[in-house]
Specification:
The complex is a heterodimer of chains A (315) and B (471).
Chain A (H helix, E strand, L loop, with lengths): L2 H32 L6 H12 L3 H7 L5 H9 L8 H14 L6 H15 L10 H23 L4 H29 L1 H6 L2 H12 L4 H8 L5 H10 L7 H19 L4 H15 L2 H7 L1 H22 L5
Helix pairs in contact in A: 1-2, 1-4, 1-5, 1-7, 1-8, 1-10, 2-8, 5-6, 6-7, 8-10, 8-12, 8-13, 8-16, 13-14, 14-16
Chain B lengths: L19 H8 L3 H18 L18 E8 L1 H25 L4 H4 L5 H5 L21 E8 L5 E7 L6 H14 L1 H6 L8 H11 L11 E4 L8 H11 L2 E3 L4 E4 L2 E6 L2 E4 L2 E4 L22 H6 L4 E3 L10 H4 L2 H9 L6 E2 L3 E2 L3 H9 L4 E5 L8 E3 L5 H13 L4 E5 L5 E6 L2 E10 L1 E4 L3 E3 L4 E4 L15 E7 L3
The chains are: A mainly alpha (315), B alpha+beta (471).
Chain lengths: 315, 471
């Protein structure tokens, strides 16, 4: 496989994943913006949505005020925003087109179809009624791509680089949500309790589609340290940091087996797994949730660069 | 111009034999249903991404080539004749190229003027003395053929450089079989999906001599934004070989290598879809970023095979074109099976005078033009266009040829108002390696404007599925 192909597949998967995460973040932000609140509280919610999406800087370069319409437009349609859903779908399709020969027909058609259909959506027509439908549609397109990948592609390097892209991106996304919202999860605040916090906790779980599964696992009401534990350490939750790294490790091991060589990225992934394996949530809180997450994000970024180097992405 | 020969209805004396079943079927179809089918076909093309880029058009960076659902049909006997003519041409053209880049016997024999070859911009002096495997230069040729009557076929052009369109030949058939399976049950149509297999065999057969393993093959594309990108990726995919861009390749340790996830890997045969000029900045255009520095030296040393070989443009140059019948006689010792269109070389004073006098009736083409750009069709041109060409001819006569406007055959085609005759041509794709391999049929291009003779997709032409019936 060409190094360029591996690079394109890795980023293709990241863009598809990012589009889906973006839809989920908008959904949560919008839910909270709709809640009856005193003063301008919901503006703060949009601020943290932008921060979780890594788009705050770019937004405020273009807009002075936080308005629901501007934020949604920026996150869905703005081509200046490289992480907007439009930019993601377009980049994913561009990469897919460049690597048509590596994709199955089903995979390609899911990407091309998403891109064609999204082109028909006019930003001006995105009303409050339409928004949930569009966000659902974005998530279903991402699910369709993942589905065609899992159901039609050979289990070889094409698959592994796709997996790496998906889970490096997903780990980054979950970690970023935790990073922006960590203060809501701190025990001191939990002592205070109250309706607002419950809304915030639910929002965190919703933004990773985990608000129902939390109850399946814990069979109790939301507790901030349980939420943190769930999103960081749970093996079975498909958007937890632990789960993402299990998938990353598996893809990297299979690449090592296929190519007969291990690199720095393998060591980094193993180290990350060890840290998650040995951690328990009390100690994470003791030594600082915020620091733990920051370290994780930095390591996850480094892993991305090491994968690119090991497999000659930019040779 | 009198009414053209129609592929389905001849000169008006009833439906021709090859079209019997299709004409009968067409008679039972409702226009609205057919139009609906056309919409479905286009959605299918769009979803599959079978698009091409039109240069200089911003708003539609990716367009569909209009597809027509009424097939163009050739009988087995018609195809046999075309086939033998094509094979003869391909062998003669390659013999000509070998000769031109070696002893130049044909010039010494006085059959073709020396300066027409030597000072031709399509002549690549760097190729002199090079020894391509099996002595073949153009392995993939698309021959443009038009028909003017029951028995008259003419070759308009031999595309010996990097002809495109073969992916449409295959996808058009896929689409037709998907939409009208019934039609294929009622007609014995020779399959075309063998082409990628033929292409792979051809490429393997011209691998560098003395290779002690299976050759590694790659398709070289200028990239995503090239008008024929879909085809490049389609062919690589169908053959199961890598699709590479110039920056994926490097000359290393005396070999052409592609940069893979596991480091460099040697490439033996490069099916390139970029022009000669861009192949190697060290030998040709120094500003090229599409090619590979050092590629040409490797080629000359026999370490890699470039398909088609550089310099093949000399055989499809429009100034050489009028000598092709002579070239065929010279190298094969027999008369051409397929005719050329009579051609006036404006570089000759007599010919120029004739062309200037008959601009209203002739087709005038640029010697190095292609894709229907820079061309005058006298009978349909405006006064202004004709005068513009008169000026061009007077200032640069060497740059033009003139040909009589042929009454290209027509075929019933689905248009807005119903089914109406439209002019068409045929481009069979022939492969030449250890043997000549020819897929039955080819790409039929159809001019969609009433009366228009310009079939090029870049000029709004469409395509049809092309059937060769089996006996």
């Amino acid at each position: 496989m060409l190094g360029r192909t591996a690079n394109d597949l890795f980023w293709l998967a990241r863009y598809v994943e990012r589009a889906e995460n973006m839809a989920r973040l908008i959904e949560v932000g919008y839910r909270i913006a709709l809640l009856p609140r005193d003063g301008e509280g919901y503006h703060e919610e949009w601020r943290s949505t932008l921060a979780s999406a890594g788009c705050a800087q770019g937004y405020f370069d273009k807009h002075e005020a936080l308005t629901t319409r501007d934020v949604i437009n920026y996150l869905l349609f703005d081509c200046d925003n490289t992480s907007s859903v439009k930019s993601c779908l377009s980049a994913a399709r561009r990469n897919g087109r460049a690597q048509r020969t590596s994709l199955t027909r089903d995979m390609w058609e899911s990407l091309n179809g998403a891109w064609l259909e999204f082109g028909n959506i006019k930003p001006a027509e995105v009303t409050a009624d339409e928004l949930p439908r569009i966000l659902d549609w974005i998530r279903s397109r991402s699910a369709l791509y993942r589905g065609t990948l899992l159901n039609t592609i050979l289990r070889n390097d094409t698959f592994y680089f796709n997996q790496l892209g998906t889970f490096v991106e997903r780990a980054d996304n979950t970690a970023r949500i935790l990073d922006v919202k960590y203060y809501v999860l701190l025990p001191e605040i939990a002592m205070v309790g109250g309706g607002i916090d419950n809304v915030q906790w639910a929002a965190i779980l919703r933004s990773v589609s985990a608000h129902r599964s939390y109850r399946w696992v814990y069979k109790q009401s939301y507790k901030p340290w349980r939420i943190a534990e769930y999103l960081i350490l749970n093996h079975a939750m498909p958007r937890s940091l632990r789960y993402c790294y299990d998938e990353i490790e598996s893809a990297l091991d299979q690449l090592a087996e296929l190519y007969g060589e291990r690199f720095a990225c393998h060591e980094t992934a193993d180290a990350a797994i060890n840290i998650l394996e040995e951690a328990d949530i009390d100690r994470i809180f003791q030594s600082g949730l915020h620091e733990f997450i920051e370290e994780f994000i930095a390591r996850n970024n480094r892993l991305g660069s090491e994968i690119a180097e090991a497999y000659h992405f930019n040779a | 111009m009198c009414a053209a020969f129609d592929e389905m209805n001849g000169t008006g004396d009833g439906v021709r034999m090859p079209y019997q079943a299709v004409a009968e079927w067409l008679g039972t179809q409702k226009l609205d249903d057919l139009k609906q089918k056309l919409v479905e076909a286009e959605a299918l093309f769009r979803r599959t991404g079978i698009t091409f880029a039109v240069y200089g058009s911003q708003e539609a960076a990716e367009r569909l080539i209009p597809f027509d659902i009424i097939p163009r049909i050739l009988s087995a006997a018609e195809w046999r004749r075309l086939r033998s003519g094509i094979e003869q041409r391909v062998r003669a053209l390659n013999a000509f190229m070998y000769d031109i880049y070696h002893c130049q016997e044909i010039i010494k024999a006085g059959r073709i003027p020396e300066e027409l070859v030597i000072s031709n911009s399509a002549f690549v002096p760097e190729m002199i003395g090079a020894e391509p495997p099996l002595g073949i230069y153009s392995h993939i040729i698309g021959i443009d053929i038009v028909r003017t009557s029951e028995s008259d076929f003419f070759v308009l052009e031999d595309n010996t450089r990097t002809p495109s369109g073969v992916s449409y030949m295959i996808e058009n058939r896929e689409t037709m079989m998907h939409m009208f399976p019934d039609l294929f049950a009622r007609n014995r149509v020779a399959p075309v999906e063998i082409y990628p297999d033929y292409l792979l065999k051809t490429l393997e057969s011209v691998a560098p001599r003395g290779l002690d393993r299976e050759p590694t093959i790659a398709v070289l594309t200028p990239g995503l934004y090239n008008s024929a990108y879909f085809e490049h990726s389609f062919l690589a995919d169908q053959m199961g070989v890598e699709l590479v861009e110039g920056h994926d390749l490097v000359v290393l340790d005396g070999a052409l290598q592609m940069k893979t996830t596991q480091g460099p890997r040697q490439v033996d045969v490069l099916y390139r879809r970029i022009d000669d000029d861009f192949l190697d900045p060290l030998t040709f255009r120094p500003d090229s970023v599409l090619g590979v520095p050092g590629l040409f030296d490797l080629y000359r040393a026999g370490r890699v095979t470039i398909v088609n070989a550089p310099g093949g443009g000399i055989a499809d140059d429009k100034a050489i074109y009028s000598y092709i019948p002579e070239i065929i006689r010279f190298y094969t010792g027999s008369a051409p099976i397929l005719q050329n269109v009579p051609t006036y070389n404006c570089r000759k004073a007599d010919d120029l005078a004739y062309v200037l006098e008959h601009l209203e009736e002739l087709v005038v083409k640029e010697v190095h033009g292609s894709g229907g750009y820079g061309m005058l069709v006298g009978p349909t041109a405006s006064k202004e266009e004709i005068e513009a060409f008169r000026n061009k001819l007077n200032s640069e006569p060497d740059n033009y040829i003139g040909q009589p406007t042929l009454a290209l055959s027509t075929c019933p085609t689905l248009v807005e108002t119903g089914v109406a005759p439209r002019h068409l041509d045929l481009r069979p794709f022939v492969l030449f390696g250890d043997q000549v391999r020819l897929t039955p049929g080819g790409l039929t291009r159809v001019a969609l404007k009433p009366g228009s003779l310009v079939v090029n997709s870049s000029q709004g032409g469409g395509t049809k599925d092309t059937w060769v019936l089996q006996d």
